[in-house]
User: Fold these one by one.
Assistant:
Number 1:
Amino acid sequence: MTSPAVKIVGVGLLGTSLGLALSRQGIGATLEDQSPANLRLAVDYGAGSISGSEPDIVVVCVPPDVTASVVTQQLRQHPKAIVTDVASVKGQISKAVSALSPADHSRYIGSHPMAGREKGGPSAGRADLFYARPWIITPDSETKPEALDAVRDLALRVGALPVEMSASEHDEAVALVSHLPQLVSSLLAARLVFGEEGQLSLAGQGLRDTSRIAASDPNLWVQILEQNSVAVAGLLKQLGSDLAHLSAAMEDVAKPGALAEIHKLLTAGNSGVSRIPGKHGGKGSSYQIVTAVIEDAPGALAALLTFIGEIGVNLEDINLEHSPGAPIGLVEMQVVPEVAALLSEKLQANGWRLV
Ligand SMILES: NC(=O)c1ccc[n+]([C@@H]2O[C@H](COP(=O)([O-])OP(=O)(O)OC[C@H]3O[C@@H](n4cnc5c(N)ncnc54)[C@H](O)[C@@H]3O)[C@@H](O)[C@H]2O)c1
Ligand SMILES: O=C(O)C(=O)C[C@]1(C(=O)O)C=C[C@@H](O)C=C1
């Protein structure tokens, strides 16, 4: 299969990650960005180069509010290319592209990799960002079959799992699985503003798990939420009603039925979470966790990671926790199940303490 010539417009988190992932597959993308500094940084990181051949496919990775106009510009600039975008909302962008360039609409196809981070910009880019993540593709009745094939091929090349649906089905689905979670995380973390420093220093993994995405870029999210306001508002209403029931039960736990109400909500949470597929498509997380104890001292983490690199183990994820007042750190490492036993054995044999 010959490699397509790819152009990426917008080299922040998504554009740089895509360039890095393609580069691993031997495809050198052409990069463009309105910010000269971001462009230079993405090139320095190895995401692609500034000039290249005429593209077969252009991937627009800019903020949602300018996506439709940049797509239109690219359709005009490259009259033979397929153009896609990766914006987190699809309906309004598709309608705007259709209105701005009716003659070229069949060469445009919306898409959205369900992969991201709470940080933006080229320096946040990761070559493995798309690995085993759904990459939603939203053709409509006018889309050329070649456009669908080209985006499906691109997603597969970077290890993502292409999924097809309409733009409106997409927007409804991501309201539930992405937009509502962002708002809930932000609302929760916003409460922390009122906590005392001493209280916050006690935070464990629960708070970290539920608040990570509260660090996301408000400018980006305002644009996403504006374009999917109807679906998100509907879900917020239902959540508000759940909250009202919970508050009433919590206000008077002695009232008959109150504990049952609270139990019902917690049980519904269990049912909901069990429906989230793991990173590799199974139920729950498919990784195993190995936790090592390190000294809370300069160089301790580096020594551990260097050792793990030397024994050839790849970490899928890592989390570092400090116990307040104790001179140790807990390094929680996620690995594929096949290497968990080997990692534990080698660490212990070389003097590392595990918990
Ligand atoms: N952040 C995520 O987790 C995530 C995940 C999936 C999809 N997305 C979508 O990907 C797109 C990019 O998000 P990001 O997180 O990479 O943002 P980012 O802020 O990291 O990067 C955006 C880049 O676009 C450039 N840009 C802005 N306007 C431009 C224009 N008119 N022409 C050329 N370049 C322009 C900026 O200079 C910047 O380098 C958004 O549409 C977002 O909805 C984001
Ligand atoms: O994990 C994160 O930090 C994300 O930003 C991921 C996430 C998501 O909700 O899954 C956020 C928005 C994007 O449109 C796609 C992916």
Number 2:
Amino acid sequence: MKYIQAEYSGPLNGTVHIPGAKNSSLALLAAACLADNIVTLEGIPFIDDVRIIAEIGRDIGLKLQQEGGQVIIDPRWIHSSVIDPGKASSYRASYYFAGSLLSKFGKVTIGLPGGDDFVSRPIDQHIKVFKALGAQVHLFKDYYVVEAAELKGADIFFDTITSGATINAMLAAVLAKGRTNLHNAAMDPEVCDTANFLNRLGARIYGAGTEHIRIEGVSYLDGGTHTVIPDRLIAGAFLMAAGLHGGQVTVMDVIPEHLGSCLAKLQEIGMHVECGDNQITAYGTNLLKATRIRTGMYPSFATDLQQPMTALLLQAKGKSIVTDRIYPKRLAHVAQLRRLGAEIELRQESAFITGGRPLQGGWVHASDVRAGTCLLMAGLAAEGYTYITGVEHIERGYEDVIGSFRSIGAKLSMHELSAQEHLDQMRESQ
Ligand SMILES: CC(=O)N[C@H]1[C@@H](OP(=O)(O)OP(=O)(O)OC[C@H]2O[C@@H](n3ccc(=O)[nH]c3=O)[C@H](O)[C@@H]2O)O[C@H](CO)[C@@H](O)[C@@H]1O
Ligand SMILES: C=C(OP(=O)(O)O)C(=O)O
């Protein structure tokens, strides 16, 4: 079993190139199945979720070549819309194959989505979309089947704002007959990126980035080339890392507008932020101020930045409160931070942090990708050594977590734990 060793690193300084967004890439790769010609995607990160998509793609006949960040996809050879349940369940965004293959072939059989298992993550809004477009949905224990003789445009009001179901609705409706209106749609950059990509192939999607999206169905999508947007969540975490001990970190190749609420919070706690056209520099200070974080859907403060922000707030003198309104129970990292000596309490669905207390290294476990970033940051700020297990979760989101953090001076290394050492470590931590 792998683990990451993090050592107290003092201020972090340097420049990091930000890779393409995981959450956009997962949508774009499934969206590419809709094309009737060759698609080239640039900037796709080489992460575990993408490797699984490549496997799923190959199983169903999709020809896919990946070299560096470039992925060339030939969807003309897809011969099946039955997706291995185990593979679909090993990551969250497999539901995008449901939207795209339903749209293209009229039927899809697919495992229930997996992914970061921090809370229950319903797919009722995805199902609502498929049904509204005229499909039947049959749910089984660990897979579901969606089928439609014909998909017809519809008016769909989301009960709650969801980026996944908004993207899936675009995938399912893009080839449907007539007009689809999505109301209460998510406005995330990943929604816009998917709409821009589909439009480049010939789709007619209007209004992405607002709460009302209109899709005029077309009968054919051509091939084309598209570059995925930069990962705003990785960028945000690196900017936060600058705040740990008064460092200075520049993130390159980003879209600063995608990080508005994050930058505002960093400034609110006393950090200085400078934005260029496609780069941001954050300057830390040793006098961080406590604050209140409430996550929300874009453009509010992202739930995926909540955990790294919690690590940073351990350094801010005074009482901070963190509430995750998107996933109220996404707080597993709190118990782990306490193992490092953090003074942080859970009351109802908020974390109450008393910042400015010293942290001591120890063994901790990352239960999802952002919990991993949080623990890594806390480990870099703690005295001594911190050992982080659950590396497989971190690698779902980061192509080279060690290399990228090292480039700003973080003392990190990857190690292998034998089965016996793992048992000893579990016994010790009980
Ligand atoms: C692969 C991917 O892009 N993952 C991101 C995506 O997940 P994902 O797309 O799955 O999350 P959603 O945007 O759909 O979820 C937003 C909210 O809607 C709720 N909901 C969602 C769908 C549904 O059918 N019913 C329902 O009630 C969820 O429980 C949550 O409270 O957005 C989340 C919220 O920004 C991020 O944390 C994830 O990193
Ligand atoms: C929750 C996340 O991912 P996923 O939706 O793929 O599980 C995340 O990226 O923080």
Number 3:
Amino acid sequence: MHSFKNPLIIALDVDNVEEALKLAEKIGPYAGGFKVGMQLYYSAGQEVLLRLREKELPVFVDLKLHDIPNTVAGATRALTRQGAAILNVHAAGGKAMMRAAVEAARDETEKAGTVRPLVVAVTVLTSFDQESFKQEMGHSGTIQDRVVAWALMAREAGLDGVVASPLEIAAIRKACGPDFTIITPGIRPAGTAINDQKRTLTPGEALKQGADYLVVGRPVTAAHDQLEAVKAILTEIHSM
Ligand SMILES: O=C(O)c1cc(=O)[nH]c(=O)n1[C@@H]1O[C@H](COP(=O)(O)O)[C@@H](O)[C@H]1O
């Protein structure tokens, strides 16, 4: 497995390589890893992954793949070759799609003699609350039940873990066991803006619930002093 020096993954949700590298330079000595999502990858492509490799921190490539199994397998191969330490697919894409992704990652790394990325499933996005989940997604049950069902399905498909809100961590841990990786966005240090997130906890609370990795974007990227924001989160984490 790629090694993260601490559980804090900073989402580099910016528009270009220069901005991403500037941020990575500043917070690199403190962060556990970086996340490159749709905004940056669709703007800068694989160049940003190549340049971030120079920082020697693992990168979670968050493109939330969701397509037929063959297409997702091809995309997974590409992101694996580009050095992703973690990559994600939507659990809603189904078991065959998830299995195709993890098999593609395994095959690609076995051929290259490299370390396989963790392949994790996105469950219910942290921007849903129970009300919008019911109204817009047509699910009658609770978010937690859906997240746990998808987590179990991801585990059966051979995935390494899931992305879920901090509110579901304990239930996932109970259902999927200690070795299943749980990555949680929707992290909001006390007193920071919630923005479009609906299901949130503070960094310390999320770790206490049993998260393996915390994904944090705007509480750091939009902070007046980004470095101070990262350090404050680490202080909270270390005091746990
Ligand atoms: O897959 C993700 O990383 C993800 C899943 C999810 O359910 N919610 C979610 O916010 N994310 C990502 O996590 C990051 C959270 O950013 P902030 O809300 O700015 O902290 C963003 O880059 C999102 O794309």
